[in-house]
Amino acid sequence: MKNNIIRLAECNDIENIVDVINIAYRTNQGWTHEFNIVAGDRISSKQLKTELQKENFKLFVLEVDGQILGCIGLTEDADSIEIGSFAILPMHQNSGYGRQLLNFAESFAKQKQYIVRLNMSVLNVRKELLAYYARHGYHDTHKTEPYPLDANVGQPLINLHLVLLSKQI
């Protein structure tokens, strides 16, 4: 993991970030994909531009030798941060980059004195992701939400819902 930096996303990164997210989520590569679970793009350039304009949202990219390999989005609420848009290019998964971004998000949250927890939503059928986050201290809140059909993040191919995870910091 030489020559890598984590920095705020910039407007000229949008197309690369959209590619990273859609490749990570919607192709049949890597261990974090949703290829047989959800059809269609995970995000569009227009959606990402809208997200980046929100005051309470920050998107960080992990860049190695000038190439964006991953990203993580952090949305601040009153006392928590929601993790989303978390993706690593499949050919760079299992290299520690995801853990590096997750550690960064946790450190970022700890710097905010009013933040007491990190939250995230994971598809109920993604048992390997649920186990990964459990190993990193995120617990199942036993709260669920329906799949966000109206958010234009792809159409489920099977019956899905979101499991809400949380980690106190």
Description:
By secondary structure, this protein is of the alpha+beta class. It has one domain: Gcn5-related N-acetyltransferase (GNAT) (Aminopeptidase, 3-Layer(aba) Sandwich). Helix content is 26%, strand content 35%. The protein has four helices and nine strands. The protein has helices at residues 14-26, 45-52, 97-110, 127-135, and strands spanning 4-8, 38-39, 57-64, 67-76, 80-88, 117-123, 139-146, 155-156, 161-168. The strands form two sheets. A seven-stranded mixed beta sheet has the order 1-3-4-5-6-9-7. Strand 5 (80-88), helix 3 (97-110) and strand 6 form a beta-alpha-beta unit.
Overall helicity: 25-40%
Which class do the helix and strand fractions yield? alpha+beta
Give the count of helical stretches. Answer: 4
Q: Which stretches are poorly predicted, pLDDT < 50 over at least 5 residues?
A: none
The dominant shape is globular
**Total number of distinct structural domains:** 1
Brief overview:
The protein has helices at residues 14-26, 45-52, 97-110, 127-135; strands at 4-8, 38-39, 57-64, 67-76, 80-88, 117-123, 139-146, 155-156, 161-168. By secondary structure, the protein is α+β, with helices and mostly antiparallel strands. It has a single domain (4-168), classed as Gcn5-related N-acetyltransferase (GNAT) (Aminopeptidase, 3-Layer(aba) Sandwich), CATH 3.40.630.30.
